[in-house]
Amino acid sequence: MKFPFKELGLLAGMALSVFGVIKAVDYFEPSDIDIMADTKGALVYQEPLQKEIETALFTFEADGAQLIPQALFDVTGVVLGKKRYLPWGAYHMAPWDIGIGWNEMSDPANLSEVSFWQRNRFMHYRYGAGASVNKYMIIPNSANIHIIPANDEVKRQMSEVKEGNLVRLTGFLVDISDGETYLKTSLERGDTGAGACEILYVQAIDLDPIS
């Protein structure tokens, strides 16, 4: 996908060393994301910013699992749904799923025509026969994200996230390895089904991104 953000120039010039990638997080905070409503009614009309990491030179740990960074990730959007899961199963280190939408899926008029719900680590949707929305609008402009909190502040803020809020999530898309299973994050926005969810190691949440 193409991401027309000024920050890509900065990130592209960073050396992917341990120091370089870790320091990139300090600067991976675009301050000029266009999130005010445009003429079509969208509240957020830029896609997530993603900078893939060709070689993971460092990992994170979470509840006994190894997290292997695959990309820097920054997304701002409308919360389409939020669900907390019990801490067991393959994704036990990711207690929350957040559905988030941008572009057409941040337009209140469109969202009034579609319902979202989350179950079994998937996000589902339904719309009526006469709706102006369709799957070709919904799928590339929304994501179900498995949330792995990086710190206690992220955990605290997650309790405040509610459906309909505008939020911004910043961190790393990661694969998960626990010695028995290997779970891969999605690196695309248009995929569906098993493996289509993003696994995000969240280092920061902004609950008021338009302030």
Describe the overall structure.
With 211 residues, the protein is an alpha+beta fold. It has one domain (7-206). Helix content is 15%, strand content 36%. It has five helices and ten strands, in the order H-H-E-E-E-E-H-E-E-H-E-H-E-E-E. The chain has helices at residues 7-12, 18-27, 108-111, 135-138, 152-158, and strands spanning 49-52, 60-62, 65-84, 96-101, 114-119, 122-127, 142-149, 166-177, 182-183, 198-206. The strands form two sheets. Strands 3-4-7-10-8 form a five-stranded mixed β-barrel. A hairpin with a 2-residue loop joins strand 2 and strand 3. The radius of gyration is 17 Å and the shape is globular. It starts with 6 loop residues before the first helix and ends in a 5-residue tail after the last strand. Residues 1-39 have low confidence and may be disordered.
Provide the low-confidence segments as ranges: 1-39
Instruction: Summarize the main sheet.
Output: 5 strands, mixed, barrel
Distance between the termini: 28 Å
Instruction: Please provide the count of β strands.
Output: 10
Could you spell the SSE succession in H and E letters? Answer: HHEEEEHEEHEHEEE
Helix content, binned percent: 10-25%
The tally of structural domains comes to 1
Strand order of the largest sheet: 3-4-7-10-8
Shape: globular
Category by helix and strand content: alpha+beta
How large, in whole angstroms, is the Cα Rg?
17 Å
Average the pLDDT over all residues and give the rounded result.
83
Beta-strand percentage? Answer: 35-45%
In DSSP terms (H or I, runs of 4 or more residues), the helix count works out at 5
